[in-house]
Amino acid sequence: MTRAIRTHASSFAAILVLLVLAIVVAGYILSHEGLRFPLIQSSPVTYNAEFSTAQAVTPGQGQTVRISGVQVGTIGGVTLKNGLADVQMNILPQYTKLLHTDATALLRPKTGLDDMFIELNPGTKSAPRAPAGFTIPVANTNPVVNLDEVLESLDADSREYLDLLVNGAGIGLAHRGDELAQVLERFEPTHRDLARVSTAVAQRGTDLRQLVNSLQRLNTALAAKQGQIVQLVNSSSLVFRAFASEDGNISRAVADLPATLDQTTATLAKVQAFAQQLGPAAHNLLPAAAALPAANAALASLAKPSAPIVQNQIRPFVVAARPLVRNLRPASIKLAAATPNLTKVFGVLNNFVNMVGYNPGNVEHGYLWWLAWLDHNARTLFSIQDANGDYRPLFLQASCATVTEVADFDPAVESLLNLTPLLTTAGVCPTQAAADVADYKKYEQQLSVKRALATRDGRSAGSVTAPAFQPKLPVN
Predict the structure, then answer these.
(1) Angle formed by the axes of helices 430-456 and 400-409, to 10°?
(2) Which of 434, 467, 471, 429 shows the shortest CA–CA distance to 450?
């Protein structure tokens, strides 16, 4: 045996290859013929569908069950139950979860040779899932309709007219297929419009059914509320009678309506201007509105950790502080009455602090700088003592113009320091001394005139009171 295989090795290999190819082809054919291989394929789940007729349905011929054009199983058998054709459908396990109890089935031919298949509509998700062995009732199925059945539904006259129409169309369209194609092509927009009209009519039919249903519910509700409807009619009668009694007032209201409409028109014009301003403002607010989610998220991140603090710390503190706040209320009222004066005082202090703290820059130093400078000089002056004690003799040097400005600025300073004798000394301040002499001569002349007038009027010259002499000294 082994020697024979070795002798005819090429022939033996060819036979093996042919055997394997035969097994593969046979498996492929048997698989497409609906044969199930137990060790390779899982068992299908059986469902049934009732049809009024199962014409051309032949189990075992590879007739399929499809959902949206996808094969989900095969037709397993046909039996007669209660005058209806009960068609068995073997559905693959991975598609069983799609079927619901409100599923529908339609027998359709693949070709003109009545090669039938079942087109399944799996139903809606709101319905329960169909269990294994579930039967789709005849109300949810439709068989294939043959052309002779359509013709049988017509009466004799209609069939004769249809015969004449078909024969006449055959004679008229003989050798004119191209022209018919062009005509049909021109009718394509009309077909699209007719499709839209049909869709709208179908929608109107749905709306009409809803309207009839709503009217039925309304009539039922009205019948149940008959007493209230009678009361409504009586109330309406009273209202209309009241309107009739107010005929004059209604006439005046109608007469005032044009002025009201004019005012409304003017108001709407102003509202239009407001709307024109509001549009750009609202558009500018869009970035802020877009930022609101992020702000809300940030606020939430702040509020979540803050909630325990408010609940466990701030709330007990507020509860404990409430009696003290009640006691502080009279003092707060009096403090509120004194607040305007305090506001003025603090305003003056604020201005004073601003003036002291003002620094004009590189041109001149501020008051704070001079205050620090004065403190430094004072500490330097009194930091060392000698035989005369802690105090030091002070020497101030200023020009006559500066001293004159000081005396003119504040008379109290002048009387305290007695600056006038110094300014009227010719050897010290010649300009101010000469002005003082000239002013004194004018003062004497004016006093002499006043005394002469008093003598002329019969009064004593000594009765004239001499005013205080106040010279006007130049600052140059």
Answers:
(1) 40
(2) 467
Measured CA to CA, the distance from residue 300 to residue 185 in angstroms comes to: 65
417-435 burial, b for 16+ CB within 10 Å, e for fewer? Answer: eebbeebbeeeebebbbeb
> Cα separation of 388 and 7, whole Å?
149
Q: How far, in Å, CA of 459 to CA of 465, rounded? A: 12
The reported pTM is 0.34
Q: Are strands 84-91 and 70-81 parallel, antiparallel or unpaired?
A: antiparallel
- The domain segmentation of the chain, as residue ranges, is 33-144, 396-476
Record the tokens describing residue 61, joined without a space.
């011929």
Query: Distance between CA 162 and CA 165 in Å, rounded?
Result: 5
Q: Please state, in angstroms and rounded to a whole number, the distance separating the CA atoms of residues 314 and 303.
A: 14
Pairing type for strands 116-121 and 64-67 reads: parallel
Measured distance CA(121)–CA(95) in Å, rounded? 12
Report CA torsion sign: 314, 318, 319, 321. positive
Nearest CA among 45, 62, 63 for reference residue 54: 63
Confirm if 116 and 74 have CB atoms less than 8 A apart: no
Describe the strand order of the beta sheet including 135-136 as a list of residue ranges: 135-136, 45-51, 84-91, 70-81, 64-67, 116-121, 104-109, 141-142
Q: Which residue is associated with the tokens 């090795």?
A: 9
DSSP assigned state of 359: -
Task: Going residue by residue through the chain, which has 476 residues, state the pLDDT in tens, using 9 for 90 and above.
Answer: 676 667 767 777 777 888 888 877 777 676 665 556 555 667 889 999 999 988 888 887 778 899 988 989 888 889 999 889 999 999 988 998 999 999 999 998 887 777 889 999 999 989 999 999 999 999 999 988 776 666 676 777 777 777 777 787 777 777 777 777 777 777 777 777 778 888 888 888 788 888 888 888 887 887 787 778 878 788 887 877 777 777 777 777 777 788 888 888 888 888 888 888 888 888 888 888 888 888 888 888 888 888 888 888 888 888 888 888 888 888 778 777 777 777 888 888 888 888 877 777 666 777 777 788 888 877 776 666 565 565 555 666 777 777 777 777 766 666 667 777 777 777 778 887 888 888 888 888 888 888 888 787 777 767 777 777 777 777 66
